[in-house]
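Final report, Chapter 2: Outcomes

The project's central promise was a pipeline that accepts a single protein chain and returns its three-dimensional structure in a standardized token representation, suitable for archiving and comparison. That pipeline is now operational. To close this chapter, we reproduce one record exactly as it appears in the project archive, with the input sequence first and the structure output second.
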Amino acid sequence: MHNKQSFDVIVVGAGIAGIYTAYKLKKMGLSFCVLESGDGIGGTWFWNRYPGARCDIESTEYSYQFSEKLQQEWDWKNRYASQQEMLEYLEHVSQRFDLLSDIRLNTRVESAKFIDNKWHITTSTNKNLSSQFCIMATGAVSSPRIPNINGLTQFSGQI
């Protein structure tokens, strides 16, 4: 599986933006792969599994708008989708548009270098990939950030 090493586009991240990018690239007929460090798709919805995690806007507004058929076939269970429901939706979209075979899970980008008008990407799975374009779909909340607050290291309470 995944033997190809050279692509038109490499996408980093299989969250909301990465899945949509994969859909658009497939529709354009370009060769691509999506690299995802997690063992599942969903980005923020995959990583944030705390109790009560859910959409802060109505589910229908958060969903993809590029396919009327998709809109009609998916039935939201909750007005504000839970984390689990969002993962189910993204899995459905990825299956519906045959995107999963182009996503490499458990694959972290170790380096990305632009040399001679090509991206050269080394992954945690010891693969060397190349592409004309590299799209970072890692999102704004892809890694935790602890704010720099004076006295934070001395605080003994729950954070």
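Archive annotation: Helices lie at 16-28, 44-47, 59-62, 68-73, 83-96.
This record, like all others produced under the grant, will remain available to the consortium after the project formally closes.
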